[in-house]
Amino acid sequence: MKSPWIRSKETRMTSYADFYRRSIDDREGFWREQADLIDWQQPFEQVCDHSHPPFARWFVGGATNLCHNAVDRHVKERGQQNALIFVSTETHQERIYSFAELHTEVQRMSASLLALGVKKGDRVLVYMPMIPEAAFAMLACARIGAIHSVVFGGFASVSLASRIDDAEPTVIVSADAGSRGGKVVAYKPLLDEAITLAAHKPKKVLMVDRGLAPFDRVEGRDEDYAALREQHRHAEVPCEWVESSHPSYTLYTSGTTGKPKGVQRDTGGYAVALAASMKHIFCGRAGETYFSTSDIGWVVGHSYIIYGPLIAGMATIMYEGLPIRPDAAIWWSLVEKYKVTVMFSAPTAVRVLKKQDPAALSKHDLSSLRALFLAGEPLDEPTAKWIAQSLGKPIIDNYWQTETGWPILTICNGIEQAPSKFGSPGKAVYGYDVKLLDEATGEELTGANQKGVVAIAGPLPPGCMQTVWRDDARFVKTYWSSIPGKQLYSTFDWGIRDEDGYFFILGRTDDVINVAGHRLGTREIEESIASHPAVAEVAVVGVADQLKGQVAMAFAVLRDPARAADDASAMKLEGEIMKTVDEQLGAVARPARVRFVSVLPKTRSGKLLRRAIQAVCEGRDPGDLTTMEDPAALQQVKDLVAH
Ligand code: ATP
Ligand code: MG
């Protein structure tokens, strides 16, 4: 069979081990070459300035622009090719913008923002559903040197208000409403309330009216985008060339382990990192179509809906809707229709599909698709096998964080084709000097199969966070202080590396369970429980126990809820699941209880909120829940614990 991976001439001769080694040992030479993947208006003077660790500046003195690299530079060669494909199964719209059209729309948006008084370095907060104007707004900010701060659409007014106060935006771009599962979610009342709550007041609010929810306009503050766009129909707004370290955006982490952190990203390093990842990791080529099912409110949306694919000259699909509406075949129908070659989603979305009829996945011609990339949460073996078999395509797990902006661990098929191992996101990605550290001593663990904290030796490679927005001290304290005296960035994840260099993420460092002196990752127990055929999804937390220190507690969602319809059948199933864990991991890992719920508490980005479950189980305050998706899910846990 012909290899589905396309490799360039210069990398065909290189083994991944050599490629990786060079990225660490000859950092400057390596990244100097990668920097050729983007356009520079002015060449950089220095590859990396690491004179004030842990801060790193990449491509110092170079001038570039993210929007130029994502849009303008493609107009000449592929102006008529698809750039942005907008599909909404909520409003039944489908609209394609070529690179030339995208170029025009971004300039109209840029001119509108300039007219509202936005200047280079100003912040623009984007509180939008998944509509093309959201992409125009992000790209327009990059174009004029403004810093965007995208806040996930539908966040409640309190969370929005705190982000307004943190970003202090000159302008907020928003829309009348989003839509989810056919239900209109009005944004404007939430936004108005947030602005009332916030200490900082934006000068202007730019409103995109989708005609979904009528809204009140604040005189003198709210502007209508349709009118401004018309006024600037023929606008020509040149790109503002910025120094490589100029911040392109700020973005918050998911808030899974506590209060979200505001990540600040640069321009040049990010553009280079994304361009390189499109080539070496995703193997996407100009003229092809990329489909990421994430949302612009998350880092995957920034890197792999908007900037990455466009920088690579690919068309990108922007999808507004659910994965199972009108039916579970919707994504795959888009793969067929737009000949998607690279797809990116999350294990949590795959688990949603897993509960549906598997026939939906085989209805469409998926021959264009090379691979499905998954990230965001541990990919358990049953889910990975199910989706791999259903699609008949390689499934590529990749591990990273909002902070890093692009993968830390994966398989770089663009360099050397390598097999995946179930349960492992793969090896350290070029540029990342990944270490495993003993949690107690901070000593580096070099042997195979030792458990430790996943850390990265500084400097972080290009594209990673520059600092915490407006809080250098928090950046140093949060990420770089766990091992005193060492320049090591902690991921706060716990992992293991096997003899072949493949990593396995065992859970968050917060989620390590200590049962009678045995240290277990929640992930290991979850994986074992998920292998029981009745289980669709599970969360395991450690709960304080007088006798054992801690015990594991499991909350599972069943594929067929009827399996636990009454107490007797629930108890029988609980026993069966415990037996599975006993057999696979040993009795020490056996959860004290396995309880059944219809839905698990998650962040809006789809991550399990284990800390909230744990707090409820221990009768504590669950802390910051502003990023939680569905409060009813935590209530179910509370009810079970109370009985
Ligand atoms: P916060 O930092 O606010 O608590 P968060 O860590 O969930 O939230 P993100 O940056 O969205 O915010 O998520 C990154 C985290 O997601 C990683 O640190 C890791 O715990 C988890 N993760 C991401 N991808 C994978 C993967 N492929 N396998 C296992 N875990 C993953
Ligand atoms: Mg995190």
From TrEMBL:
Residues 72-459 form the AMP-dependent synthetase/ligase domain. Residues 524-607 form the AMP-binding enzyme C-terminal domain. One of its GO terms (molecular function) is propionate-CoA ligase activity. Gene3D superfamilies: 3.30.300.30, N-terminal domain of ligase-like. Its EC number is 6.2.1.17. Residues 16-70 form the Acetyl-coenzyme A synthetase N-terminal domain. It comes from the Bacteria. Keywords: Ligase. Pfam families: ACAS_N, AMP-binding, AMP-binding_C. Belongs to the ATP-dependent AMP-binding enzyme family. This is Propionate--CoA ligase. It comes from Ideonella lacteola.
